[in-house]
Amino acid sequence: MQVLEQKINEIKFTWPLGFYSDAVHSGLKADKKDLGWLYSEVPAKAAGVYTTNQFQAAPIKLTKQTINHAHMLQAMIINSANANSCTGQQGELDAQTMQQLAAQQLHLEPAMVGVASTGIIGQLLPMTKVTAGISMLKLANSADIISAIQTTDQHEKKISVQVSLNDGQSIIITGFAKGSGMIHPNMATMLGFVTTDADIDGIDLQQLLSGQVDDTFNQITVDGDTSTNDMVIALANGKSNVQVVPETAEFTIFAQAFKQVLSTLAKGIASDGEGATKLVEVNVTSAESHLAAQQVAKAIVGSNLVKAAIFGADANWGRIMGAIGQTDAKIDPTNVMIMINGVAIVKQSQGIEYDHFAMQQALEQSFITIDVDVHAGTSSGQAWGCDLTYNYVKINAAYHS
Predict the structure, then answer these.
(1) Residue 99, class by beta-carbon neighbours within 10 Å (0-12 exposed, 13-18 middle, 19+ buried)?
(2) What letter would DSSP give residue 129?
(3) CATH number of 82's domain
(4) What local confidence, expressed as pLDDT, does residue 219 receive?
(5) Is 151 marked within a binding site?
(6) Which of 51, 174, 189, 196 is catalytic?
(7) Looking at the structure, do residues 84 and 191 belong to the same domain, yes or no?
(8) How far apart are CA 392 and CA 401, in angstroms?
(9) Same-domain check for residues 374 and 340
(10) d(CA 251, CA 84)
């Protein structure tokens, strides 16, 4: 693992070879950029993972259909402030219009353009503003699209890594995302985009994205609500001329770097939960299976009682035990161990003595780790979430149509 890490270096945010982006203020938001595109100068292999919510927004259905047709895209047109969800046939026509307008501006076939939207559900897009906004977009080297897709986000989620391969060649993987509330995947109110100049087959890219989403984006939770618009799209345009093929050393390095990008974005969303003051990481060990470990970890970060206790800097381990016990994962009920920020508070499923003042100070930190050993096997898993604060209620009480 150490050798792999030496070949993966986080760098200043930069687009991989052949990728361009721009964003404008089209009037969907009062005074911030709200519409942008991502463009590859050559067709890119494309992969996507989408919300499991039964009410899938028009952009989701259109982009899924577009990618599934040929596993290729050359551009994404993206807006915030309006989800174009639960908008009926007109919403579907509006998504198609966005696709067609962007394609026309970029001199592409519509089938080479994906569409993504995020924001208020149930309102029709003001297409006059959208149309004018698309006409203003340029082929720039801008990173403004990262802030343009935000809704209640407080900070940007972005990362670029340079990957050095065994033959001295290198590739870049760059990702950005938005998400703050309605976060409880399988996919939640979030948009994620990953770009790379690696040359990888579209089916291989889809398998890699689908598999790694399960251990990253699908292991975060903020509030237990899943949205109608979520998607993660990966684009690989091959401009580096570096081929990445499964069952090779190069693919192993690439996959590790790809997961680092997804993990960083996922944790960025968890830490930016609406009203959140703390990022919470749960590590579960000695589980019967990886799936069981993931289930237990996510149950803990998803418990409102645990989240509220962490906000209050209260090491109420009984709430953690309750969350573990609600799952159907195999555990040893007589031999669970819990540590918070490295301090043991439960052994053999019973509370033990610890320094309460030191623990309270530890829980005042912005990053909290909860380690749980369930003594049922040899597998491990992780999940990320945040605390539950007064501001979460305030934000969502004021977020209306």
Answers:
(1) buried
(2) H
(3) 3.60.70.12
(4) 82
(5) yes
(6) 189
(7) yes
(8) 18
(9) yes
(10) 37
Instruction: Give the pairing of strands 279-287 and 379-386.
Output: antiparallel
- Which pair of tokens denotes residue 401? 């149509």
Q: What residues contact 124, with CB distance under 8 A and at least 6 apart?
A: 84, 87, 90, 91, 94
Residue type, 303: S
In 3-state terms, what secondary structure has residue 366?
Answer: coil
Are 291 and 257 within one domain?
no
Full domain range(s) for residue 169: 2-270
Distance CA 68, CA 162 (A): 29
The string of pLDDT tens digits covering residues 42-53 is: 999 999 998 877
Q: Do the annotations mark residue 82 as ligand-binding?
A: no
Q: CA-to-CA distance for 385 and 388, rounded, in angstroms?
A: 10
pLDDT band at 401 (very low <50, low <70, confident <90, very high): very low
Residue 35: strand, helix, or coil? strand
Measured distance CA(73)–CA(303) in Å, rounded:
39
How far is residue 27's CA from residue 30's CA, in Å, rounded to a whole number? 6
Q: Is 87 annotated as a binding residue?
A: no
Asked if 59 contacts 93 with a C-beta cutoff of 8 angstroms, the reply is no
Question: Of all helices (H) and strands (E), which one includes residue 82?
Answer: none
Annotation marks residue 14 as catalytic: no
Domain end, chosen from 248, 270, 292, is at 270
d(CA 78, CA 128): 16
pLDDT tens string 108-141 = 999 999 999 988 888 999 999 999 999 999 999 9
Residues 361-390 pLDDT 10s: 889 998 999 999 999 999 999 998 888 887
Whether the full predicted model's pTM is greater than 0.70, yes or no, is: yes
Amino acid, single-letter form, for residue 93:
L
75 and 145 housed in the same domain: yes
Q: Which of 297, 298, 285, 281 is nearest to 336 (CA)?
A: 285
Q: What is the CATH number of the domain that holds 352?
A: 3.10.20.340
Whole-angstrom Cα distance, residue 39 to residue 47? Answer: 15
Decide the pairing of beta strands 157-164 and 8-11. Answer: antiparallel
Q: Flag whether pLDDT at 399 surpasses 80.
A: no
* Cβ(297)–Cβ(336) below 8 Å: no
Number of domains the chain contains: 2
